Amino acid sequence: MRRSIGRLSAAGIAILIGTAFLTATLLAGTVINRITTDSIAAQFADSDLVVANGAGIDEAGLEEIRGTEGVEAADPQVMRAFELVSGSKRTYQVVVPTASDPRFEAQEVVEGAMPARSGEIALPSDVAERFGLALGDTVTVVRSVWTPSAEGAAPEAGAPTEEGALPQDAASADGGGDAAPADEPAPDEEAPAGTFVDTNEKLTLVGTLDDPMGAYAQVGGAGVLSNEDLTAWEAESFVPGDAATSYNAVLVALAPGTDLEAVRSTVTGSLGGDTKVWTSAEYAKDQAAQMTGGEDVFTYVILTFAAIALLVAALVIANTFQVLVAQRTRTLALLRCVGADRKQLARSVLLEAVILGLVASVAGILFGIGLVQLALTVAGSMDLGIPLPSVVQVTAVAVLVPLLVGTVVTLVASFSPARAATRVAPLAALRPSDAPTLSSGAGRVRLAISSILVVGGAGLLVLGVLLGQQGSAEAGLLAATAGGAASFVGVLVGAIFWLPKVVSVVGKVLTGSGSTAKLAAANTLRNPRRTAATSTALLIGVTLVAMMSTGAVSARMSMNNELDGRYPVDVSLATDGYDEYGGNQPVELPQSTIATAEKVDGVESVVPLTATSVTVPLDGNDITFLARGVDPGAATALSRDKKAVEGLAPGTVVVPAGVAESWDISTGDQLVLTAAPLPEDANPEGTPATLEALVTPMGGRALLVTPQTLEGVATGAPVTTAWVGLADVNDAASVVPALQDALADSDLPIDVTGAAVERAMYQKVVDTILGVIVGLLAVAVVIALIGVANTLSLSVIERRRESATLRAIGLSRSQLRWMLAIEGMLIAGVGAVLGILLGILYGWAGASAALAVMGDVTLAVPWRDVALVLVVALVAGLLASVIPGRSAARTSPVEALAVD
Questions:
Q1: Angle between helical axes of 297-327 and 342-380 (0-180°, round to 10)
Q2: What pTM was estimated for this model as a whole?
Q3: Higher-confidence residue: 310 or 233?
Q4: Contact 359/327 with Cβ under 8 angstroms?
């Protein structure tokens, strides 16, 4: 083994990378679980116990806990969110009440103090800084108050009419951006009549807060209100008939010297039911387990990629030992002659593999621990706002599992070479082992298994696609995944029969008639087993990368088409003046907002829309809708789907298909639109209009008419919305954030919705996921490329006599190096091309099975990614030949011919 250290180095590096990946994954999973648990536990601060009940703990239960002997304080866990306003800046802020005991307070005061009376608030330091607030400044909190309908007043939108019938659909505040299902059930007939009305509360900032343990990091930090204010606000938002307020958890602080177990038993018995009494650490672990379904999903997903990396490493290891055993066959045969039996020879090879696996695995474990520690150090210096451990916690699992897996993988990969060493006859020891042929029994079995897997897998793939198209997305994806895995294994099993021949044919086609190129192509067939294993290692990684890239680009294009049909325009800007049913007072969109939007780079046009609430008599009841007025020409120019606004003209009303289905409206029906009385305008001006319905594939729930028609129905209807068209919708990821930033200082909250907004979001999500997955798969590709370099290096050692003979008959050093370069690029290039083709096929099948339930699936090819993978493979194959080529060229013909 000492004589073969150089030859074993590539196999050692491969297993080192694989075990480092595995170690880092297990440690990262531990860190993430610890961060999650610590963040949850931080919300309970220094409380002694947490009382929880899935059905909730009511006020009576809370008082029961507070009255338990030994309990010094008990506070329910409460978190609420309100809109926070200061000048032109707005945000939604999570708030918690002041604690009755300091042990319940998870945050620390940076400056000032906690609220001590009504009308005070403390905010996270970063929120106060972002809003430019100082202690003593006033900040506005917008809250909702339930207001019953006045006696005899018109019913609120969405509330029961006098006849008891209920509207099942109405308008949306986003001008068609609301994608709520059209068949949404109507409110309960017994629901009280009334509505929520926004109320502004002026509060004084009395303190700024820090959250050192990240208790509220998941919600962006929490402000603190006086318990008096929060309790009163809760009461005013209560809807008659709703269930009384209850709490999921109650924090308990015990008096000094109190027996914790005794209090636990007493509280459990007094509340009964499903009540559980935990320590804060126990409750945090339980909540963390519920968040992940009791499974460490993150670790399992990443372990899949670690398994792929180790599989590729196994191919590299098997290749290395095959060559080593082939080179030692004379020595092994001589050992047989002096008394060594076959088992001893096999054990010698396996022992060498075990030692290599152990040493490389230990190095990989240390490297993986170092990587995680480096990541923690870097992340800790970035102030991420979550409690990160300063030192990686090394667990027995994170050490023993990679050590065992790395050693076992190396051992298993050496089985075949070990068996080959015992079967080679002494007189045939100088020949490398032949590949399986169709004339041998093993070859026929391998071919049969490969054929069954490929054919059966292809059938499952087709079945998966068909199931997906029939609407069974889960079953289709399951069948497609099983089929893809089976067929891919079949391709790998049968690769030894066809892959070397493909490499050779491609070499002959691409390299012309040059002697160097011909030699390179011929060399790939000298040892088909090694060529197949090397190219297969790269084939695995590239196939998976291409599959994910193809699936991602197909998903992105299919999502784009779906969004185009769901939203009428790229972007819609709307004031937050209407509720879901269009029943609130309209809020005018400032002209300055429209002017600001027009100046944003990437915005091509902005079209204003007027709006008001209208009633339409349907099924004997007056149903409230939101109606918008837009110029037909402008709407047609901006609409993503021209059919959505087709036919809009004076005397017509566009009815979204979802609304039409809910209320049984057909094109040509006559609808009477009447201005609806609003809370601040009980007698709107205008004349009811009878309009012809046009049912179109318009998204959302708002009715669409011309501005002139809407002005006649409701005189003075304000501009509340603007439709924005982008110059290039593919730039949504950059234009939408720029548009949102430009509108951030508006005096009114502006809803920014539309196809481009979701397109930007989905593009970011898809690209992020794809980047992570491709990054993980890159580990397997790197190991495979190391295998290419390893194969070429071993080939140089194995063919020293041959290379010397070629040099002796006139082959120059540069020609020798070029021959190895062509050989490396052929092996890497063919593996990459075949991997790309398989990846595209699997990506299309997966996208068809998973996305067909959405509608039409657009299959696409990620040409940029495909080209990049191919170029990287070719360049890597070329670079992999540099060191072996220099080694072969430096050896003199006489010295090489003298090798025994």
A1: 140
A2: 0.58
A3: 233
A4: no
